[in-house]
């Protein structure tokens, strides 16, 4: 199968972890006889430095003509102390989402048995945690009208039935393929937009009689996620609540360095590790490549290359199981970013050598 993959390494450790992701895609291509062609493009601070624009037109064009694209990370310390800087790396990401219509951000949260001791939560609360967050990504307060006078400011939050419906269908379908439970997180006791979400999603539940819908206020959900994270299966929420809840969820399993994400719409889709650009670790060969490699697995799923995605996940499990991990997951020194990638690549290629699938 031939596929065009866009590659946006971005800033900080982005290029290093993305390089490992591409090695894994190459291994899959060779093992399964596919042809992946890659087109690289600039985004974030790297793009500002080169062109003055965090999302140059050429980058957008590369993404538009891709079947899917891999994204590293964006952000550079020189922008961190000045949130009001006119041009910021984050604008590149927000524009990418909006322009490409990537309306659903999907973040699986899995607690790996070998890493339970690293969770900030008690082991018995974390063991067996396995849920996925569906965050709406192109609406709400992020993209509403904004304004500022000298001493006041506003950010409008607006949602339409159509915006709610398209992501809710994805979330209900995901629940049907999992434990058949959907939790809608909102603030319907206060916000009109949340009441719209609740009304629409509750009405849609009739189309999915096998899925149990549960509605939860966001403040309670933030607490429940710590007290009893095992209760969740598929979590659905709007843009801003999803931003906050998914960061909270990301630490439950013990390491952010393992968590992948997908941002999907109607055409191309974007796959990225959920961690940031981790500037202090840049070029030190210590960044954990697994979140990116698991994002590659999600990319393969998206291209309907299901066996290929399973193969990648098995290779990642083997690396965790064998202690072939970077320093963030290791009691000792840990292995380099490239060594962990090599192990995963060899595991995939060895399957070829032994003829097993
Ligand atoms: C995320 C990030 C972005 C967001 C920032 C970088 C704009 O925090 O992907 O969750 O708030 O959506
Ligand atoms: Mn965030």
Automatic annotation (TrEMBL):
Enzyme class, UniProt record, top EC level: oxidoreductase
Residues of the site described as Important for catalysis: 142, 187
Pathway: Amino-acid biosynthesis; L-leucine biosynthesis; L-leucine from 3-methyl-2-oxobutanoate: step 3/4
Gene3D superfamilies: Isopropylmalate Dehydrogenase
GO-annotated biological processes: L-leucine biosynthetic process
GO CC annotation: cytosol
Coiled-coil region: none
GO molecular function, one term: magnesium ion binding
Function: Catalyzes the oxidation of 3-carboxy-2-hydroxy-4-methylpentanoate (3-isopropylmalate) to 3-carboxy-4-methyl-2-oxopentanoate. The product decarboxylates to 4-methyl-2 oxopentanoate.
UniProt protein name: 3-isopropylmalate dehydrogenase
Gene responsible for this protein: leuB
């Amino acid at each position: 199968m031939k596929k065009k993959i866009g590659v946006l390494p971005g800033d900080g450790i982005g290029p290093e972890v993305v390089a490992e992701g591409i090695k894994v895609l190459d291994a899959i291509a060779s093992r399964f006889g596919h042809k992946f062609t890659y087109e690289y493009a600039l985004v974030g601070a790297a793009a500002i430095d080169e062109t003055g624009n965090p999302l140059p037109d050429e980058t957008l064009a590369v993404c538009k003509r891709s079947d899917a694209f891999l994204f590293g990370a964006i952000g550079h310390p020189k922008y961190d102390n000045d949130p009001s800087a006119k041009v910021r790396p984050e604008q590149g990401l927000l524009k990418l989402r909006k322009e490409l219509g990537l309306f659903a951000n999907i973040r699986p949260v899995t607690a790996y048995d070998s890493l339970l001791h690293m969770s900030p939560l008690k082991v018995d609360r974390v063991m067996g945690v396995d849920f996925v967050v569906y965050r709406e990504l192109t609406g709400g307060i992020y993209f509403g009208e904004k304004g500022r006078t000298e001493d006041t400011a506003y950010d409008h939050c607006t949602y339409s039935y159509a915006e709610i419906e398209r992501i809710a269908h994805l979330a209900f379908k995901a629940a049907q393929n999992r434990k058949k439970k959907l939790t809608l997180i909102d603030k319907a006791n206060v916000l009109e937009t949340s009441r719209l979400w609740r009304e629409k999603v509750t009405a849609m539940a009739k189309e999915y009689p096998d899925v149990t819908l549960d509605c939860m206020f966001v403040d309670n959900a933030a607490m429940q996620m710590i007290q009893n994270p095992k209760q969740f299966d598929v979590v659905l929420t709007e843009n801003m609540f999803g931003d906050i809840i998914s960061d909270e969820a990301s630490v439950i399993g013990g390491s952010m360095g393992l968590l992948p994400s997908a941002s999907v719409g109607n055409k191309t889709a974007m796959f990225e590790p959920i961690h940031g650009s981790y500037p202090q670790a840049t070029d030190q060969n210590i960044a954990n490549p697994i979140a990116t490699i698991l994002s590659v697995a999600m990319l393969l799923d998206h291209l309907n290359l299901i066996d290929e995605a399973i193969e990648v996940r098995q290779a990642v499990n083997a690396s965790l199981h064998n202690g072939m991990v970077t320093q963030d997951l290791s009691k000792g020194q840990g292995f380099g970013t490239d060594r962990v990638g090599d192990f995963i690549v060899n595991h995939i290629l060895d399957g070829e050598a032994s003829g097993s699938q």
